[in-house]
Specification:
This protein is α+β, with helices and mostly antiparallel strands. It contains 3 helices and 10 strands. The chain has a domain of about 100 residues: Immunoglobulin-like, CATH 2.60.40. The strands form 3 sheets. A 4-stranded mixed beta sheet has the order 6-1-9-10. The protein has a 4-stranded antiparallel beta sheet with strand order 5-4-7-8, with no helix packed on it. It has a two-stranded antiparallel sheet with strand order 2-3. The termini are far apart.
Amino acid sequence: MKTRRILMRILAVAVVIGIAACMFVIGRGHTVYFDNKTLEVNGQTYKPFYKVEVFVNDERVARLSEEDRGMFSTMGQDFQMVLHITPTKDGKKVGSAVSMKLPYNMDGIIINLPALLNGAPEEEYLEEFIPAPAVEDETEDFVITDEFEMPSDE
């Protein structure tokens, strides 16, 4: 009887740990940034498109002009998007579906769309977003006071 109770408790703990591990992977949130910017890597230049519309789950999440950045928050590792691209000002709109696995170790992910769609390797079009540290305003007014005021001889 005692052995059975211990085995049931071990089994219950294992099930809870298994569910927690699955939820950790499935429920992982990412902020995905879409860049329509010029990218130069190893002498190769990827020029931005005139306009790009990014659709996720049939909803437009970003509309980018040249040198723009958009963003979208998503859950999980699998990511699918549909891009409507206008390559030049007078160009015709072209659609492209993209599916990818998001890196598990990154919270903010930057995807350079021109490099991605022109066949660049993942290490060129995908990078981690690292926010710039806040710059403190150094123009604060300081008031200097004299704690030890000397009596005047008046």
